[in-house]
Amino acid sequence: MGSGVMVVKRFFIDKTVLIILLCYSVAWLILDVGGGDVYFASKLYFLQGQQWLLREHWLMEEVLHTGARKLVTFCVLGLILITLYFSFYAKSHRVLAKALFALSISVIFSLVIVAYFKSITNVACPWNLSLFGGSEPYYHLLEPRPSFLPYHRCFPAGHASAGYAWVALYYFLACLVPKWRFLGLGFGIFFGGLLGFVQQIRGAHFLSHDITTLVLSLLIAKLCFMLLYKEFDQPIVKVKR
C-alpha cells in the first residue's frame, strides 16, 4: 500500500507527466478558449456544403465507427486471454506476463475512464449546435450548461479512446524491446487519430475532445506501468538487461 502511494506521488511530479499537462493546457487555451475548436469544425462543416454530409456515410458509420469498435472489442478480449495464458499457464515468461497485465489494465482503464467522463461532463457535440445546423448554443468546456438543455455525452472523445488506449504499447515495448517503443506510441496515436478524425468529420466531436482522450490515455498508461511493472520505474537501460 505504502509503495503504491509513493508511486502515485512520483507520478504527479514526473517530468513527462508535467510536460504532457503543460502541452494540454496550451492546447486547451488555443482550441477552447481561443476558438480553435470552432474554427477547425467550421472548416470540416463548410467542406461538406454546410452540413454533416458524411455523418451517415457507410464507410464512416459502418466501417470506421461500428466496425472499428467491434475490432477493438475483439482485440481487448484477445489481449485479456493472452494475459491470462502467460499469467497462469506459461509461468516461465514472468516478465512478459507482468508487462501484458499492465498493458491490459491500462487499455481497459483508458476505455472505462473516458466513458465515465463522457457520462458526467454534459458537453454537446458539434452537430447539436446552431453553429453547425443544430439548435443549441455553443458553450466552452468549463462553462455550465443550462439545465433546460438536453444532456449530452460528447466529451471527451469516446470512439477515439478505442485507438488512443493503445498508446500503452509504448510502455509495454519499453519494458520488453525498448528500441520498438516509439512504434507502439505511433500506432496508438495513428489509430486514435484516425478514429477521432472520423468522428470530427461526422460532427460528433471537436478537436479538443480528441486531445483530451489522448492525454488521458497517456497518463493512465504511464501510471498503470509505474504501479504494476516496478522495473518500468527504472531507466530503460536497466529494463533491457
From TrEMBL:
Keyword set includes Ubl conjugation: no
Keyword ATP-binding: no
Superkingdom of this protein's organism: Bacteria
Domain Phosphatidic acid phosphatase type 2/haloperoxidase stretches: 100-230
A Pfam entry, by short name: PAP2
Transmembrane intervals: 12-31, 71-88, 95-117, 155-173, 180-199, 211-229
Keywords, sorted A to Z: Membrane, Transmembrane, Transmembrane helix
Protein name: Phosphatase PAP2 family protein
Native species: Nitrincola iocasae
